[in-house]
Amino acid sequence: MDRAQKEELVTSLSEVFKSTSVVVVAHYSGLTVAQMQALRRQMKASGATVKVAKNRLAKIALEGSDVAHVASLLKGPTIIAYSSDPVAAPKVAVDFAKANDKFVILGGAMGTTALNVDGVKALATLPSLDELRAKLVGLIQAPATKIAQLSTAPAAKLARVFGAYSRENEAA
């Protein structure tokens, strides 16, 4: 990697660290190529991204960002997972770590908050933004449907009463 490529990588990583809401750092030593590809596919499917970068270059890119405290985790063969959704990257990382013993989560950051392994696991248990949006829409729709049911209920009752009277008159 020549100097221009390194500068480009540092610039792109710096932009990533400034724009993402969550970063997860993990060791990946011992994973096969197929396992790494599976991890990348899972991350991409959930809207997250995985990067393997030289620790020295990643530390340079971290300078001046909100997640700069992650630099202490960058030792050895590390992988950086990030996403704009605060739950996507931790959820995939934790699920992948359960299936692969050689993938070890070291910690991460959410905004200016440093996360240890337990913090990353706690984030992974939260519902994603899409799930929360669906729940909110459901909560908003529920009162509207109940109001509609209540407003139509008196008319339905009247219709049943009139129907009963008409059947009674026909029988007589």
Automatic annotation (TrEMBL):
Keyword entries, A-Z: Ribonucleoprotein, Ribosomal protein, RNA-binding, rRNA-binding
Pfam name, any one: Ribosomal_L10
GO biological process: one example: translation
Record-linked CDD domains: Ribosomal_L10 (cd05797)
Molecular functions per Gene Ontology: large ribosomal subunit rRNA binding; structural constituent of ribosome
GO CC entries: large ribosomal subunit
Domain of life: Bacteria
Its job: Forms part of the ribosomal stalk, playing a central role in the interaction of the ribosome with GTP-bound translation factors.
Assembly and binders: Part of the ribosomal stalk of the 50S ribosomal subunit. The N-terminus interacts with L11 and the large rRNA to form the base of the stalk. The C-terminus forms an elongated spine to which L12 dimers bind in a sequential fashion forming a multimeric L10(L12)X complex.
Protein family membership: Belongs to the universal ribosomal protein uL10 family.
Protein name (record): Large ribosomal subunit protein uL10
